[in-house]
Amino acid sequence: MLRTKMEEEEEEEVANNWSISLAKLMSILVILVAGFAFGLSLTSHFNQYSASHAEVFFPRTVFYDKESLSVKAFIKPTHLMHSMSDGVLFWRASMVPKIEEYPFERVPKVAFLFLTKGTLPLLPLWDRFFRGHEGLYSIYVHSLPDYKIKVPENSAFFARQIPSEETSWGSITLLDAEKRLLANALLDFSNERFRFVLLSESCIPVYNFPTVYEYLINSAHSFVESYDRDEQQCRGRYNRRMAPQIERYQWRKGSEWFELNRELAVNIVADYKYYSIFKKYCKPSCYPDEHYIPTYLNLFHGSLNANRSLTWVDWSRGGAHPATYGAPNIVAEFIQEIRNNNTFCMYNSRPTSICFLFARKFAPSALGPLLNLASTVMEF
């Protein structure tokens, strides 16, 4: 009886030990499974995190290819269409390399920024202007979001549209479009000295490309009209709620059509503080596109500005819009008057006879006569 009882106790102890071991094994398995699941979740989250941040540096393009994820594409984007929001675009465009020596060859280049409602009726004239000067310029077109410019592949404007948004006259949306054009152009690091020129669909060049190029690349200043006048159209548009960031004596007005160097372009794209003030307080009859850049440069970069526009415009007829010129107006004498209109101006702190490189506004009907004069008067 005693032996039997001892055997039973031993068997019970063995059974208990086996149960404990099984429970430990099950616990370990549960921990391993939970750890595996957590690892999968963490990996998935990391991949999503990496993908979302990779999108900032290498955004998906409409015409996707392997080159879109290369360093080459980062230096000079292969395609202009991308998926970045304005916030991401402006952030990326405001990056400035700290190392002065670049690990690739660069050339001075001019970026022509076309802010247009849709069609470019004077495009054939501009194509003739750009012909033969590839590598010295870049073109960016901001149009209606759904509008597609249809041009042959040999056109300078082929595949040069950027992601665009709706704009309306006199509103902050025009300033948004200008910043969008600047930011997309700034994504191109392949230049040595980038100059940025804002134009419209009704603008024309009044000199040939070499003259325009040399004038811009060799200038020590940017060209933004910025003036102060005690009249309703200038000081009268100031909103006292802009103070103390912007005081009345700092308020400026000027032409929308600017030319900037890369440093100023980066600063304007990166600015949020003063842009927010204009967005909040500059509303009709205050027009941000006529006041923001002139005021911003006056606040911080006045010494870098020539304080004049390179685009000739005729305001002599009065009204809210300048004069528009069509076919009957386009004669050699008229173009010469724009080029030599007795305006006194300075270039690199010296008097110059060339004050305007571009002119507006020209109607679609002006195209034919302008093409006829291009080779003889404008020399392109």
Structure write-up:
The protein is an alpha/beta fold and 380 residues long. Helices cover 40% and strands 11% of the residues. The chain is built from 11 helices and 9 strands. It has helices at 2-57, 71-75, 86-93, 123-130, 172-186, 209-217, 262-270, 273-281, 288-300, 332-339, 367-378; strands at residues 107-115, 137-142, 191-200, 204-205, 259-261, 311-312, 345-347, 350-352, 358-359. The protein has a 4-stranded mixed beta sheet. A 3-stranded mixed beta sheet has the order 4-9-6. Strands 7-8 form a two-stranded antiparallel sheet. Strand 7 (345-347) and strand 8 (350-352) form a beta hairpin. The longest helix is centred in the N-terminal third of the chain and has 56 residues, at 2-57. The chain is globular and about 115 Å long. The N and C termini lie far apart (122 Å).
